[in-house]
Design brief:
Structural class: alpha/beta
Radius of gyration: 18 Å
Order of helices and strands: EEEHEEHEHEHHHHHEHEH
Strand content: 15-25%
Helix content: 25-40%
Shape: globular
Amino acid sequence: MPTHLLETPEVTLAYDVHGPLPAADGRPPLVMIAQPMDARGFEALRSHFPDRTVVTYDPRGLGRSIRKDGRVDHVPDVQAADVHAVIEALGAGPVEMFASSGGAVTALALVTAHPGDVVTLVAHEPPLITLLPDARAAARAGADIRETYEAKGWGAAMAAFITMTSWVGEFTDDYFARPAPDPAAFGMPAEDDGSRDDPLLSDRSSAVTGYRPDVDALAAAPTRIVVAVGEESQGTVTGRTAVAVAELLGQRATVFPSHHGGFLGGEFGYAGQPEAFARRLREVLA
């Protein structure tokens, strides 16, 4: 597995190429991206594609990709430019792409800016809360997590995050009337370690959830876009955002096995169904 470092004036991007280039089967490379998760999260899913050349990468400022621009925010258009640079460095585009969570938002920005880079995009549960009918309430729920993080630290904020992302339906007064969740109930530490740089719990990824897709540009692109939703995500915030994005693009969301992390193995304590997920991804790509 060769690991490559792509140097730009703003960042050193680390990406991994699993398999030969050009691909032995003549198919495009299969690029897997996420955010804020880095390449490590795709180990289980990638293992079910031994016949494909798979490319994974660490977004700027995450994992092995070191920023030089002095910034800490995660902006979809900036990350899209990074992915475009990686695809150009591969010299094997256009690619097929599986993109999950914030990575799916990056991928939509990529297709908007560089429509010739991707032949098929599977965008798995992009968390675009601005598209929800209860967008203002969803934004308030997200703000509560960030305020909890600032006030109490990682464990309390992660408990609040799990509570938010597990909530089924719109964020109503009943949601906001709930007592603050106990971190211990979720196996999280109650102690505050003092850090405030988590990209999921701080305001560093606000530009991701606040991104608004350019529908006209996406419709004009030659890329085949498939919006995916986990069968266990139906009604949760990322399940609802996936449905909203699909409707915006004039389609129905394509159901995949498991939940928001359905492609994960058990290495992060949030195991999905990676084998079944991979089978479904093969079907959709075909």
